[in-house]
């Protein structure tokens, strides 16, 4: 049950990051979950484990990390589309 809750929270974090950046995360729901998990890992690595924790995610660092990840991915995909 805890794993399911982590998937839901990771997906919401990825979705929020995409909404804040103003770009869709590639691959839909799966992309949102992946962006949430990788963003949480990145944010916690850089900013530490502080703030409210929901579903094993420190929400503030996870959201900041996901925002950075979505922004960087959107730049990469945009440059790949232009190169084609």
Automatic annotation (TrEMBL):
InterPro entries: Transgly_assoc. The chain crosses the membrane at residues 6-22, 29-51, 57-77. Its main location: membrane. It is a multi-pass membrane protein. It is found in: Cell membrane. It holds the Pfam family Transgly_assoc. Keywords: Cell membrane, Membrane, Transmembrane, Transmembrane helix. One of its GO terms (cellular component) is plasma membrane. Belongs to the UPF0410 family. This is GlsB/YeaQ/YmgE family stress response membrane protein. It comes from Peribacillus glennii. The lineage of its organism: Bacteria, Bacillati, Bacillota, Bacilli, Bacillales.
